[in-house]
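# nightly structure sweep
# worker-07 picked up a monomer target from the shared queue
# config: single-sequence mode, recycle default, output format = structure tokens
# input follows
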Amino acid sequence: MASTPSNRLKLTPSNSPYLPHPIRSPYRGRATVTEPRLSLKRVVGTTCVSPTGFDVVNSSFAYIAGGAVVVVDVDGPDYTQRFYRARPTALPVYSTPSLPYSPSTPAQTPKANDSRNRTSLRESTFGSLDWAESPTSSKTWTSRERIKAATCLALSKEGRFLAVGETGYAPRVLIFNLDDTSSDTPLVSISEHAFGVKAVAWSPDSRYLASLGSANDGFLYIWRIDTKTGAAKLFQQNRCTSYIRGMIWVGNNLITLGLRHVKVWRVDDAQSTSPVKQKFIGESSVTPQPHQKTLPGRNVLLGNLIEATFSCAAAIDDTKAIICSETGDVCLFDDSGKQMKLNHVLESGFVTTCVAVRGNVAYLGGKSGTLATIDLASFVKCNPDSLHENVGSFAGLFAMGFLDKNMVTVDAKRSIHIWGLDRSLGELDLKSTPIPIPGHQDPILGVEALSRPNVSSADFFSWSGPGQVILWDVEGKIKCSFQVPLDEASFDDESDPVNQLTLVRATEGGKFLVTGDKLGFVKIIDFSTLECVSSLKAHSSDCQFITTYEDKSKFLIATCGRDRTAQLFYKTATGQFEHFQTLEFASRVVQVLIPSADRVITCSLDRTLQIHDLVTKDGDSDAMAAIPSRTLPLKASPASMTIGADGKSLFVSLLDRSISLFDLENGKLANSFKCTDESGIESVVLDSLKARPGNEKEPAFLLGISNTDKSIRIYDGQTGSFLDREWGHTEAINGVALIEEDSKRRVVSVGSDGTIMIWEMDLEDPSWGSATRDPSPVKDSSTLSRPTLRRVLSKAELAEFQRSSPSGGRRSPPRTLSKRRSIYNMCSASASRTPLAALQTSPALAIAEDTPTRRPSADSRCGSPPASPKTRVRRRPSLPALNSAKTKSNGNLRGFGSLNMATEQACRTLRAYRKKLSSTDPIGQDVLAELDQELRLTAVALGDRATRSKAMSDTMLNGLLDQYSERLVALLDEKLRLSYRSTSDQEPESPGKRPGSSGAGSSSS
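# output follows
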């Protein structure tokens, strides 16, 4: 992508009058890129559905397969494959030169995916090599930018270069060197097309490459190619907004064809030279470049074919071509005269999808599989009798082409066949057996590894919706295939059957295959005979997951479905499969596992992980049951889970794009990490988890797939650090399998695009486990399992601990009465103390022990005057206020509001006091007398309370409390009035004092 990084950049204009700044990449740096851990070794299947995705030259042919291109070299009965694929961040070998006099910055704000207003490196002073040499040139791409698909390709006529067109976000035109065995680095990367590349085509002399964008893109570019190096330079361009189905070269002219469209584009080598523009100071001298001319084009008159959709074409010579339509019209394009002509010659009688020319014979392929031939000698004379039908029959032809000694076809089953030619006659030999390059006819729904040895000597198997199961080896060859019988069911509003195969699992010993379909049926198939031995209706709807467990004594099967249940089956001693329990859940069960003979683990969408214990009855081993043991909460809904390599841990992938590691022994969360990329920014949801242990040369790893960006990812199983990721599938990845044999590990991934990709994994790191670095300390799992210390003291226990008082005497809490300035503030402190002392010792205050009293503090009464009687009269104390005053007056009962709590506190205080009596500290006589009086009064009060509580109701008690409170207030007011009179008699009345301001007379009444 170095040639055109993004339309979000605004680089310095090349004609700036200022001196250029040092070259620096505007991209943000990321972590150091390591060597890839996954390398593509084989691709099975193809995504080619039109002639634009297939091409032949000499003894080689190429076809698209997902995001990669497969080049096959045929040598007699043998063939070899090469793979060409470029990462989204791949840097090309050669840069694309700058366009002459193109604006350095757009005149307006560029729109998304607008190639006309996009600033590229071709339009700036930065070259591709400058970007490649930058230490921070590796750009972090978003998820949607990484999803790309190869849609078209073309091989140069001499077989040196391969051109590939992509679709997706920021599509590219890539040019590879075919001299390389397999390559991930393109020679040139062109990103001028914004919405996808529809077709690419090489000129007969390989000097030009034409790239056509989709109808939304609307651009046709002609690139001049250096035949020595493969470097590309834009030569001509024009708009082409029609819906195009194909593009071919006829001599030096380019023909595009599609929906009501046949147009000829003439490539002109003659170029005019424009004058040199005045340069600014500091700008380097540039040699004059030729002015770019618009690519001229001319529409061909269609006549009666104005409504036709032209699907394929092939060049006959430099001036003539055969063009076919979808409805079977076969036309002759003739450009030998002064005027272009399109003559309708004959009707093929079938839907024509592809055409190829070999010698004097043209071959027509149809969607129905029909193969017909046309004699070109009579066809160019517009003879309608030149057609010969029913030459051969295939399973629907999408593309075909001729090699030196073979013909290659791509059929509707996504299979490629290499047919031989009769050496004596040079004609097609359809009687001999072709060389197959197999593939799945339908989208592949899953893959599973097989344990060796097995009957078919296969390494893994895959399955599709119609029930086809194919067994493969690691070289991509079919070992065996069979059809799973499906119970058909259809509804009135649907013509096609709705049932399809969803899951296939193999037992550890490889003796049985367990399948599940969309209707909820579970079938058990004998692997040796491929016969169904048991069919069970396990679920009312889709079967979501199947797991098996097998040892010498038990054979267990567990399934889960969309009906929010998990079903448990076992194999009896007689060899029959019986259902023994149904587990019901509040929401749909995502996955079920049987890690051992005594445990079943399930996870559901209600963010819970359930663990059940499998138990049997004494004396009856066939009587089994699953008992709930533990339920673990999850942070988010689960997507997948797998047992750790040690068998004691569990990895759970969550929809919040993280993975949690649980310890199965204690059920605690041991670790959690985000599934980020190498930059640590973007995270994805992992599915189909596979865990493997580490060894001396490589760490323990976790393998999974992500449909967020259609990638295969590897993470460190201990730390959760990112190891590697790869792309290749263009649609949803439906499964991944890990195959281990000898010292090699292979990863097999399958997708809905019908392709199987086999990757080789190499996780060996020279720094891992080397003797030069200190070994990391072994993590002790018991550290995580140790419980945290907890000891919370209750209030009852805290009450047994008394705070030490700073002074020996008892201290009352400070007064809470608010201070108010009045005329009494003028009184002296000595005069105010006399009535307060008398009031404190007055026997009127000791009315009853139950009556609330307000004890003034010794410290507070020295410095503050008495409160105004007027305030006392206007605001009569209420019952809660008196109760709160009583509570605060006793330091031992502080903080306890109820009588029960106060009683408990008194009991604890007495117990603590009895313990103190054992000490030798002296006790004062006055204190002992006070204690004796308090104990006697408390005993009397308890007796009265016990007597009154039996006959006294709550209403009577409240009335008595109100009466006591009113009497107390009246006594306090009388004492304050008397103290005020005595003070007035001792001091003469000052002239500034307001008479009658106290209001004592009114209060006494």
